[in-house]
Amino acid sequence: MVKSVSGLGRNGVHDFVLIRASAIILTLYTLYLVGFVATNDITYETWQAFFSGICTKAFTMLALVAMLIHAWIGTWQVLTDYIKCAKLRGLLQFVLVSIAFIYTFVGFSVLWGV
């Protein structure tokens, strides 16, 4: 049995709840963006005004963290199932989770640069 030393949660139930909660947050964020795009004429000014609002910034930060959690747990689960070599699995997980962290931090810097 593979031990969950690199998983984000403490156990399988915790991981299950985290991945479902992050999926719900990402779905709601997608609906929020689709609703904005569907009801507005998109120009640079409207897009900038939309992302300048504190509610949109907070929701975007929440979505970025949810994406990080979702990617971390999902990566661990998929790599544990399909990559049996522990060294290769560890390397791949390190690379993929590092990319997710980079996406998150770049997202934060872009978001607060508006």
Automatic annotation (TrEMBL):
- Annotated a ubiquinone binding sites: 82
User: What does this protein need as cofactor?
Assistant: heme
Among CDD domains, the record links this protein to: SQR_TypeC_SdhD
Judging by the UniProt lineage, the source's domain of life is: Bacteria
Q: Name one Pfam family in it.
A: Sdh_cyt
Keywords, comma-separated and alphabetical: Cell inner membrane, Cell membrane, Electron transport, Heme, Iron, Membrane, Metal-binding, Transmembrane, Transmembrane helix, Transport, Tricarboxylic acid cycle
Q: How does it sit in the membrane?
A: Multi-pass membrane protein
Q: In which pathway does it act?
A: Carbohydrate metabolism; tricarboxylic acid cycle
Q: Name one GO biological process term.
A: tricarboxylic acid cycle
One GO MF annotation is:
heme binding
Cellular component annotations (GO), alphabetically ordered: plasma membrane
TM ranges:
17-38, 58-79, 91-112
Q: Where in the cell is it found?
A: Cell inner membrane
Q: Where does heme bind?
A: 70
Record note on cofactor:
The heme is bound between the two transmembrane subunits.
Annotated InterPro entries? SQR/QFR_C/D (IPR034804), Succ_DH_anchor (IPR014312), SuccDH_FuR_B_TM-su (IPR000701)
Asked if the keyword Heme belongs to this entry, the reply reads yes
The free-text function statement in the UniProt record for this protein reads: Membrane-anchoring subunit of succinate dehydrogenase (SDH).
Descriptive protein name: Succinate dehydrogenase hydrophobic membrane anchor subunit
Organism this protein belongs to: Motilimonas pumila
Upper taxonomic lineage: Bacteria, Pseudomonadati, Pseudomonadota, Gammaproteobacteria, Alteromonadales
